[in-house]
Amino acid sequence: MNTTANGSSSWSCSSLINQEARKVGATVAYSLILVVSLVGNPLIVLIVYKTPTLRKPINMLIANMAMSDLLYPMFLSPVELAKSHVGSWLIGSTLGEALCKMHSFLAGVSMLVSVQSLVLLTVDRFRAVVLPLRLRLISHHVSI
């Protein structure tokens, strides 16, 4: 047990975890998330695109959310795997700094687009249930 200068003890879970086991677990988890995302999300977009009856604005929001959910693991997983195994960003110099910042920005934008699509879906479903006779928020008709 660790003891600080003032006599209080501090305890950390990281001392109990085998670092190699953590790396293997993180690699398996990130790889599984990436593979499921690379298969499932394009499948949703393909189904909405190929089925004419599903080409409705609400389903387009679902396809939009699927695309943003596809991009997030594509930006996050490789970087987290490299950070886990190497311990630092792989590319140095100005290019590496720009890519690091762009990676963070695009991952954040992808997450925000996904959340925005989910909020719009929720608002539309709320209005459909609570106010069913009013004009729909998301429709095929364009009003000026």
Automatic annotation (TrEMBL):
Keywords: G-protein coupled receptor, Membrane, Receptor, Transducer, Transmembrane, Transmembrane helix. It holds the Pfam family 7tm_1. PANTHER family: G-PROTEIN COUPLED RECEPTOR, PYROKININ-1 RECEPTOR. It comes from Porites lobata. This is G-protein coupled receptors family 1 profile domain-containing protein. InterPro entries: GPCR_Rhodpsn, GPCR_Rhodpsn_7TM. It is found in: Membrane. The lineage of its organism: Eukaryota, Metazoa, Cnidaria, Anthozoa, Hexacorallia. Belongs to the G-protein coupled receptor 1 family. The chain crosses the membrane at residues 28-49, 61-82, 102-123. Residues 40-144 form the G-protein coupled receptors family 1 profile domain. It comes from the Eukaryota. The keyword Cytoplasm does not apply. The keyword Isomerase does not apply. Gene3D superfamilies: Rhodopsin 7-helix transmembrane proteins (1.20.1070.10). It is a multi-pass membrane protein.
